[in-house]
Amino acid sequence: MADMLCCAADVTHRHPGAHTVLVCVSDRTGYGPRLLNAVERQLAAVGVAACVTDSMCSRHLLRRGDWAAAVHTADLDLDAARRHAVAAGKSTYWWYRLNAYGTPPLPLALLRDGTPQQIAEHPRSQWLRWVGLGLGTVAAELFGIGLMCLQAGPTVFAQYAAATTVFGHALITCDGELLRSGGSVPARDTLGRRLTYAGAAEAYLRGLRDAVVCVVHVDLPAAV
User: What is the pLDDT of residue 137?
Assistant: First the structure.
């Protein structure tokens, strides 16, 4: 699974507001259209009506042509994935330190409670979007919990990057149970909830046998 991971900046996926969801299905459903149908059924069971297509599969899995759109649990290496994510997170942190130098930090209250427009208008946000190609399209998370963790230092951001890159925002078990982090907007999540969710997702995946994990980007219903 480590090879599936892209740089930590891609933790903030290209669908602003959407959730990165790991969907687990029994291996007996097979691959191809049958797998996508099974993923759609799993999503529908938790209230997601969006149709799943190959184009919606995670960038982690489709970034290169030789990667498949799904992974069998026998091929998961969560330890290697976490190490890779931590290293990528540290690299991203030092890129941020270099490029944020001289701009005032965003106040915690603004990151936590501000509107997307207020956050985007802050000098640091504007500067990072100017120096970082594509940052404007990933602002949903980067200028929320992501930037909050960046401003907290390399150790905190490495924790965030590992949890989010490897486990996303939610996981649907083979039995249709939804494990998730935070509410309906990823940017308004907290590190504590993200780490708690990642711990539960990791424990589930480590105990899973003979199943397939497919990663998609969808809008989950509001948390109850």
Answer: 43
Task: Report, in angstroms and rounded to the nearest whole number, the Rg of the chain calculated over CA atoms.
Answer: 17
- 218 close to 45: Cβ distance less than 8 angstroms: no
Q: pLDDT band at 42, cuts 50/70/90?
A: very high
Q: What is the value of pTM for the model shown?
A: 0.80
DSSP state of 66: T
| Residue 102 φ/ψ region, left for φ over 0, alpha for ψ in the -120 to 50 degree band, beta for the rest | left
In this structure, is the dihedral angle defined by the CA atoms of residues 109, 197, 21 and 153, taken in order, positive or negative? Answer: positive
Task: Specify whether the CB–CB gap between 170 and 180 falls below 8 A.
Answer: yes
- Which stretches of 13-142 are DSSP H helices? 33-45, 59-62, 78-100, 108-113, 116-121, 123-131, 139-141
Token pair 């930090």: residue: 105
78: pLDDT strictly greater than 60: yes
pLDDT of residue 207: 93
Instruction: Give the number of C-alpha atoms closer than 13 A to the C-alpha of residue 220, restricted to the C-beta side.
Output: 25
